[in-house]
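Supplementary notes for students who missed Thursday's class. We covered one full example, reproduced here. Read the sequence, then the structure, then the short commentary at the end.
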Amino acid sequence: MLKIKNAFLLFFVLIALLFGLSFYMIINSYLNLLLLKQYEQKIKSLDNVLKFGLLNELDGENIVPFAKETEADFIIFSAQNSISSLKNIAPYEGFEQNKTIKFQNKKIMLSRFSHGDYNYTIVVYPRIVKLEDFWFKIFAIYAFCVIFIFVLFYFSAKKLLRIFKKSFAFLDSIHRQNVVLLEHSVFKEFNFLNKKLLKIKDKILKKEEKTKKQNEKISLKNTQLNSVICAISHELKNPLSVIDLSVSTLQDANLKDEALKKELLNKISRQSYKLNQLTHKLNFVFNLNTQNLTLQNFDLHALCQKIVQDPGFERVVLRGEASLVSADIFLIEQVIINLLSNALKYSQKEVILEVRNQNLKVIDFGRGIERDKIKLITKKFYKIDVKSENSFGLGLFLVKKILSIHKSYLEISSTQFQGSCFSFRLKSGDKI
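Structure (token representation):
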């Protein structure tokens, strides 16, 4: 900015000098022309005066007083004699007429005339006018104008400098939320630039906010994925350890206990089933769609009776009545098992499973779910307890997806420290 300021100042000085010089030359030329015209007029007037009577009356005695009175000199030749108001007329004979000539530190102008028997020369002296006051006034006015324009330019430059500084500060903070107010200017272009800068800042902040949210989502997905990998690793490690240990024991040639062999084979079978269930659930999550549906009519209440008789569901109390629905019985079984498993996990009391009119409800009396987490618990890989290694965060996501391809949805209501209710509705079996 300093170089621009110096260049601007130098440019201003050069313009002022150039303008001053041009102004002086124009005024001086005009004054010289004006004086020339005046004395041409004076010569003409004196010529008229001489022609109309004075030539005969002038003589050696009165020509000098007449010259002083008219502020001019005269050289008059006639047949009888010659008279002059000058003592030495020789230098004037070679001068060019009707032009200003510098002679003896004076500027003179002369013209030659003839009238009758007379030949005469009129010499006039451009009156020495004291122009000091005139030029002083001109200089004072010029200096005032220059100073005024300089002051005007100075404050304009300061204003522009402030605008540029604000713009630079704005550009430095364009990616931050802090507000830098731009200078309002009398120039429309700067105001237009300010609006453009504000729009660009708004776009950058929106893009950064969007990028931040995307990064947070990616970070969350990575965290969830790490949790899932840890959970899967944990789930795979235990069954594989049991299977490996059982196989090692069975390979012992000295093992003769048939009961122990049978028990080890049962362990291998159970752990294999567990691994199969795990891969089956993961396959559901990533590959489930409407093409996998096998719709059939079945009694939802009867299916629930079958489920609650399995080990692990002893605390489930089944209520309701027969209810014929149209759905994929295997997938709906997975939904019910997931809902019951979650309810039993977070509640130490009994869990109520109720079936009426194609509606199913799972009611627990556990710790409940916080309101802001209700919408999150059906997200893929979301876990309320992030420290839990035995949960993939896939259960309720799988429930939501299965119900979605059945054109149904999961309703969740919960009160903290009182319990939760999960419910859904299926199509009636009579309608297919």
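Commentary. The helical segments are 2-57, 63-70, 132-172, 188-250, 258-287, 300-308, 329-346, 395-405. Residues 188-250 form the longest helix (63 residues). If anything here is unclear, bring it to office hours.
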